[in-house]
Amino acid sequence: MGFLSDAVVMMRVKWQMRSIKVQVPPEETDLRFCYDVMDDVSRSFAVVVAQLSDKPLRDAICIFYLVLRALDSVEDDMKVPVDVKLKELPKFHTHMDDPNWCMTGVGEGRERELLENYPRVSREFKKLKPAYQNVIADICERMANGMCEFLQRPVVTKEDYNLYCHYVAGLVGHGLTDLFANCGFEDPSLNRDFTDSNNMGLFLQKTNIIRDYFEDIREEPPRMFWPKEIWGRYATELGEFKEEANKAAALQCLNAMVADAVTHIPYVVNYMSSLHDPSVFRFCAIPQVMAIATLTAVYNNADTFQVKVKTTRAESCRIMLNATTLYSSLEIFRKYCVQLQEKLDPEDASTPAIQSSLADAMERIDAQLKKCDEESYSRSLLTRYPGLGGGYMLAMMDTVTSFFGGRREITNHA
């Protein structure tokens, strides 16, 4: 039954990815290039962007993503000397006003192509409404300055760690919140306080930093952002965690990193609960649910130091299909919080801190779930009794619905 259910949800996502695609008119070659690059660089991100109901917001987020992707490609290319980066990054936001600026020989694959064809992004940037342009340019400038700061000094303290994650991810949360507040579908006051949106970004970034240990430690030179204030309690060098003899210390450090990351979950619940537009909600919720699933997978998992630990494909597909409303997203989020709680090692020093954060998060989730009355009795019954085939029946019901009523293409003139 489980195998069949997994097969069904993976087929549904495959259909969804084929059917949900921004259709750009042939004459809009620059915009088509932008969406094609985003689609190739991050297919899952492109799918949630494509489902945004408002064309101006959809285009703005696409351009926002590409501008920051291009900026990150320059910062991340280890072949580019640091002094060149320190010269180029602070002025990167001005290149959107220069229809001729581009950069060659930096990055790889589509990222390199993006920088080489940057005028196409700049031209589309100029078509956005001024409020969107101002947000994108401002976040790009602030992020670039933050990158320059950490090109010149390591991440040592937890304060450094939070600041670095703010620069590269928290600011993205700020920018998206500004875009949402200006789009007309969300509360215009959404951007009065960026605390929750900043924590949304930090939660995603810290999850990625923890998960990516194996890939990052192998770079030459390694680019690691685990704060020494945490890992220094368990080793003299970060690379020691790869060694079997240091497995116990490595797991203690890993769990301490997870304990730091889960402190952001209550703010994530707050932010998700503040959104109104279904497509904006889906855009924000799916990555956050993916993040808690990933943290649950890496906690106390020694494989984190030997491979890139991921959620299963079926699990990821199930999240993409079901994290679509506040009720369903919070239920899934709560499920992973419970799973993480059940995995906690009672002998590990980080367990009390993780338990405290999870208790706070689940209290907020439960309060929000009580406010929701979206779930029908029959769907609730199937959800609560998976042993009777409920999960399979739900998957089949949703598949029939999506196949006959959900196949659609999104026109860029919607």
UniProtKB/TrEMBL annotation:
GO terms for molecular function: D-glucose transmembrane transporter activity; squalene synthase [NAD(P)H] activity. This is Squalene synthase. SUPFAM superfamilies: Terpenoid synthases (SSF48576). Pathway: Terpene metabolism; lanosterol biosynthesis; lanosterol from farnesyl diphosphate: step 1/3. It catalyses: 2 (2E,6E)-farnesyl diphosphate + NADH + H(+) = squalene + 2 diphosphate + NAD(+); 2 (2E,6E)-farnesyl diphosphate + NADPH + H(+) = squalene + 2 diphosphate + NADP(+). Its cofactor is Mg(2+). GO terms for cellular component: endoplasmic reticulum membrane. The keyword Membrane applies. NCBIfam families: squal_synth. CDD domains: Trans_IPPS_HH. It is found in: Membrane. Keywords: Lipid biosynthesis, Lipid metabolism, Membrane, Transferase, Transmembrane, Transmembrane helix. Catalyzes the condensation of 2 farnesyl pyrophosphate (FPP) moieties to form squalene. PANTHER family: FARNESYL-DIPHOSPHATE FARNESYLTRANSFERASE, SQUALENE SYNTHASE. It comes from Leptomonas pyrrhocoris. It holds the Pfam family SQS_PSY. Belongs to the phytoene/squalene synthase family. Its EC number is 2.5.1.21. The keyword Transferase applies. GO terms for biological process: farnesyl diphosphate metabolic process; lipid biosynthetic process.
